[in-house]
# Entry
Amino acid sequence: PDTKWLEVDNIRVRSFDDQGRVTTATAQRGLTNEDSSEVQLMGKAIVVREAGPETRAYPAPRMEFRSEFLHAFMDTEQVKSHKPVELRRGQDAFTADSLAFDNVQQTMRLQGRVRGTLIPSKR
# Structure
């Protein structure tokens, strides 16, 4: 290739974090760098992090991001988008005009028209 980027049609990516949780990413088109540490997903992009073992200190429900564009940074566990996004975390659901999610810092920045539905947990 003439660049260090690879373009893939119908891209499918599977990644594992330090705790063994699986993250999958799919889209109609994708760009990835040479070591797949950075992936740009375009067209019906979906990133799913499966639920992990729940602990008292840190529940880890399933998370799902949907957008026409998602930029996933696998090494730093970040997902960003400048396009409208849909997010599901367990039973909670959010929509926004843009997204910046950092799994390591456990922060999410939703901007623009943000709407959310929070479902209380059953105790």
User: Anything to note?
Assistant: The CA atoms of residues 1 and 117 lie 45 Å apart. The chain has a mean pLDDT of 88. The radius of gyration is 15 Å.
